Amino acid sequence: MQPTLLTSIPNIALLLGTLTAEQISRMRRVKDEVTKLKRQFEQMLDIVEELEQMNHHDAKTKHWMRQLRDYIYRTDDIIDLYRIDAERRKAIESAEKLVKEQS
């Protein structure tokens, strides 16, 4: 006996639920990793700023520290952009869900 569309619906719903749960779990892990990276870059920036205050570095070291500080700032900006985009997507998904519920 071949499964009909009606008998397949519970299996499809279960599959979609599983995929959605996996996606949510993956997104939470990514969010946690982004938060951890941001914290680590902030700590690195603190260290670089402390080193810059010790005025006994040669020109090459000062140049390297400036480059490192710039890299940290750029990376921090990318992390912020990721967070903004994630919040924007979350807001769009919530709005779409609300529209569907009202339809």
TrEMBL record:
GO MF terms, alphabetically ordered: nucleotide binding
Domain Disease resistance N-terminal span(s) in chain numbering: 16-94
Gene3D superfamilies noted in UniProt: 1.20.5.4130
Regions annotated as coiled coil: 27-54
Signal peptide extent: 1-21
Pfam family, one: Rx_N
InterPro entries reported for this sequence: Rx_N (IPR041118)
Keywords: Coiled coil, Leucine-rich repeat, Nucleotide-binding, Plant defense, Repeat, Signal
Any one Gene Ontology BP term: defense response
Superkingdom, natural source: Eukaryota
Family (UniProt): Belongs to the disease resistance NB-LRR family.
Name assigned to this protein: Disease resistance N-terminal domain-containing protein
